[in-house]
Amino acid sequence: MQINLITGISGSGKSVALRAFEDAGYDCVDNLPVSLLESLIHTLEKENSERIAVAIDARRGESIAELPSILENLRSHHQVRVVFLNADTNTLVQRFSETRRRHPLSKSTTQTQSTTLIEAIDNERALLEPLRAQAHSIDTSNLPSHALRSWIQDLLKDKPLGLTVVFESFGFKKGVPSDADLVFDVRCLPNPHYDKVLRPLTGNDEPVKEFLEKIPEVISMESDITQFIEKWLPQYIADGRSYLTVAIGCTGGQHRSVYLVNRLSEYFRANKELNTLQLNFLDRHRELDSIPAIKV
């Protein structure tokens, strides 16, 4: 059975992700108590269910600490993937403010003072850290709902085994993606933004590609990044990772980073020597899909 656990910080888009799994034909269960996970899997096995997505978050309190060992037991018989949704604290505060919803860990009684929103978010991060460390993490801070749904759909096309390498372009002016494992800063390269003709285009457009591929520094940067990744990929595989996110950043995330992500993806997908390593590849361009933000 393919088991997908959807978890993460409240307000980061777990409901959006779960609906994407449901649209893809998965049996979906939201807000499942930790103690019922194994029983649910046994029941669905009897019903010959092949694909399931379960959302569990920190509102289950300290019982969330039992999840890593439960998942380890399930992995002995099933394919298990953990998808962890995250966002920076400022974004989460804004989302809760806009929707006027309370954080699940904000407790109010007549005896004690309510936990502040930021304290609740910090508590939630601490509770979920053991899960985040073993998960495929997605930073939704600057990601609209439709883009998150698209990223989940791409994830579902991924093979269940082997290392998945995610190439992601971003703009430094909106911050470094929190899910990035390797970050390469390409702001030192000539910027097509200063060309009035190229400014409204992106790294996906031919005029921008033609502009950048003629610049020696761009070619050199691409070569250096490629060699670094090739050298260290076997070590990341040996480390037992399921996902490796390589983030390429320029100023606005429109031209240089998009171009280089596309080039890297093309190179590694075509590299026959890497086929024996069971590698899978995903491409993401964070800034090409902008606000509105995900609602809580």
Q: Would you give an account of this structure?
A:
- The chain has 296 residues and is an alpha/beta fold.
- It has 2 domains: 1-157, P-loop containing nucleotide triphosphate hydrolases (Rossmann fold, 3-Layer(aba) Sandwich); 161-296, no CATH class.
- The chain is 39% helix and 19% strand.
- The protein is built from 9 helices and 9 strands.
- The chain has helices spanning 14-23, 37-46, 67-75, 89-99, 117-132, 145-156, 206-213, 216-238, 256-270; strands at 2-8, 27-29, 51-55, 79-86, 136-139, 163-171, 182-185, 243-250, 279-285.
- The strands form 2 sheets. It has a 5-stranded parallel beta sheet, sandwiched between helices. Strands 7-8-6-9 form a 4-stranded parallel beta sheet, sandwiched between helices.
- Helix 1 (14-23) packs across helix 6.
- The relative contact order is 0.16.
- The model is unreliable at 108-112 and 291-296 (pLDDT under 50).
CATH architecture of the largest domain: 3-Layer(aba) Sandwich
End-to-end span in angstroms? Answer: 30 Å
Q: Order of SSEs, N→C? A: EHEHEHEHHEHEEHHEHE
Q: What's the name of the CATH homologous superfamily of the largest domain?
A: P-loop containing nucleotide triphosphate hydrolases
Largest sheet: 5 strands, parallel
CATH topology of the largest domain: Rossmann fold
What is the CA-based Rg, rounded? Answer: 21 Å
Total DSSP E strands = 9
Strand content: 15-25%
Which descriptor suits the 3D outline?
globular
